[in-house]
């Protein structure tokens, strides 16, 4: 059941980020289709504006789906978000171009993005809670890392498909109909993910909570006020940790492909192949990094990532700006390996900040507030800063500022390695481990 839970959560995350990856890597083409303008920078800003708009509704999705996970169960909410995400992505592939229906094209694109954003608001918090509550205490980092492994798989699927289409199709064909293919694939993927998620059982931690509620020991309904005000210290920690996690994530995986193409005028196909290779490298080391968090702790790994981004962002971006294929690959690989410090740790570190009673709701709200304000706006803000200042090093400076905030959060966060989740009993993998734990307690 643990393996099934991890696979279902990872697949849902993969599907979510398949769409976000496709949208990022095909942003230039979408700008031509939905936002015709003589200025390429204006087109890119408009496209990333629609990208960022989805993040404005994510906190509302988190406020709806997160508390629902604490009220009706961890298993039901991810199934609903999966349906909504697949429908929104599939709908984008059906929208006529600006040349066909005029201003209604970008309006419909924005509407589909808002549906995606609302559903995504409940996806990560629910999935991370689900995996964390199923995982044994000694393996929570390793098993939780597969949630972001799914993210990378989705990105690679999106990037690989866009790269293939870009290489095989002419620009006219791509802008005419080829760009629709990646979005239309979301329909069948959503049905597969829904099937897997519907086969899951409730997590042991929530089942125990529900049993206590039925016996009258606890109130099942948790007020949103308790999730926010009652957890304000850990909520601030969550927001700060998610800030550094997502600013670096979106800078590398969403913004850099467009940065290489539009700002550095690098060949689009080669740029996509470099990003694809970096993500494959990240996937290769990801499970090992997850095991490191189980052995040495979440704080040392996350702290190393913050320190690395603070010290190496400028040298890595200077390598990328040098322009040769080798230099770009080395700079992007440096960013990617540092990002693994966050992607391998956060799925196990964030759920451990909150007690079982409010875990899904508090995590979803804090995560989505931070992503909406800081993460999803990263491509738009960096593009605007470069346009305003003319300084091509802005991506590095922006990431360094996020790393400082993340480092402060790491200093104050509690270590959760090899410990039970707050409000939950110890979770073990074998009967022998259970007997040893009982003996130690006696």
Q: How would you describe this protein?
A:
By secondary structure, the chain is mostly helical. Helices cover 80% and strands 0% of the residues. It is built from 22 helices and no strands. Helix 4 packs parallel to helix 7 (104-134). The protein is globular. The relative contact order is 0.16.
Task: Looking at this protein, list some descriptive labels.
single chain; 442 residues; mainly alpha; 22 helices; 80% helix; globular
Please write out the topology.
Blueprint: H1 2-25, H2 27-34, H3 40-56, H4 58-71, H5 76-92, H6 98-101, H7 104-134, H8 140-168, H9 171-178, H10 180-184, H11 186-198, H12 204-214, H13 224-228, H14 232-263, H15 268-296, H16 298-322, H17 325-343, H18 346-349, H19 359-375, H20 378-389, H21 394-412, H22 431-441
Report Rg: 21 Å
List the quaternary state of the chains: single chain
Mean pLDDT: 84
Q: Tell me the helix content.
A: over 70%
Stretches with pLDDT under 50, minimum 5 residues: none
User: Rough shape?
Assistant: globular
Structural class based on helices, strands and sheet pairing: mainly alpha
Count helical runs: 22
Name the helix and strand elements from N-terminus to C-terminus, one letter apiece. Answer: HHHHHHHHHHHHHHHHHHHHHH
Q: In percent terms, what proportion of residues is strand?
A: under 5%
Gap between N and C termini = 30 Å
The count of strands amounts to 0
Please summarize the sheet with the most strands.
none
